[in-house]
Request: fold
Amino acid sequence: MRWCAILLPAMLYAAVAAAEVPVPSPPRGDGAQCVEPTEVMRRDHMKFLMHQRDETMHRGIRTTKHSLVECLSCHTRKDDEGRFVSINAPGEFCQECHAYSGVTMDCFGCHATTPRQPTSRSAQSLGRLLSDTSFRLHIQP
Amino acid sequence: MPATKRGTQINENRRRWLGGAGAAATVLTLAPGVRLLDLALARSEEEPVSERVRWGMLVDSTKCAQGCTDCVDACSDEHGLTGMGRPQTDAQYIRKLDLKDKTTGKAYSLPLMCQHCETPPCVDVCPTGASFRRADGIVLVDKHICIGCRYCMMACPYKARSFVHEDLTSQVPETPRGKGTVESCNFCVHRVDRDREPACVEACAQAGHNALVFGDLNDADGALARKLEELPSRQIREDLGLNTGVRYHGV
Reply:
């Protein structure tokens, strides 16, 4: 009887705690599916990024599948004013899980945390670019 | 009849001329700005850069106007270089220099950036291998392994490199930059890898100056090699024997 008195509250507490375990819920990215299955990405995204980093930096291979810039293009959200929110801001895609697992990211000391924000100046240069037909096109054989 | 004969002759000429013009138009409209040679040399996205290409630039200082900073502005825009209001230490990939010959009084203006040497002193002195020369001749800093010792800045005869002293938040996706690392002109490597010209060259041409020509030094039929053949050019500090990728005309 005494055992019951101790065990029952303990079990109740465990049940309540299980329901309240804070699981990270990063916002969904654009599109139906990431570049790899979700389970693979959760475990190995850092390996893909590290591999791509050296390929791009030293060998000039700019495939987009595992590039950090492409992560940003799907996973950054826009605020009410239509400006991109930094991907490492609290609650945003990268930070949500890294805060949960206690991992500090070094990426964003150097790398942009949003796609290029539209400024008046870069909008101008984009306009120039679009109107200019003399820039060389990228040809894929 | 003479009249008919004459008419037939004219038609034949017309036909020959139209045929030639048609062929010329086909070549010209292949795609804007793309020559057949470019198609042959274009590299697929999965293919690494190779030593077959060596990127270089010719600066025609006779066309470079004093006080014009179009190239510098385009560079800052492209790489997200925002100053801290401290000109002594703010990052600059291109410096515009105004020079004057004391004897003759002749004034020159030219942009000075990383000269992308064949034997770069910055690469020689780098203790971690962060400063390196890519196979296609572009000299870069791998900021993932740069420890910020700044030996390369001391070694560079052109003072082409900058050090990032403060935390930054204004980076653009194509050019990661961060506190504690060294950086310099990278020939807009993200553009070059996608068969586009560096931002400074594009801006200079758009402004109508055409003082900068970018291209492959190894391609004898390319725009750069043809221009180098046409104009006498020299390297800055040729005496150092670095075989720079950037050449100057009119200095």
Remarks:
- The longest helix of chain A spans residues 38-59.
- The interface with chain B takes residues 53, 55, 57-63, 69, 72, 109-113, 115-116, 121-122, 125, 128, 132-141 of chain A (CB under 8 Å).
- Chain A has a mean pLDDT of 79.
- Chain A is about 50% helix and 0% strand.
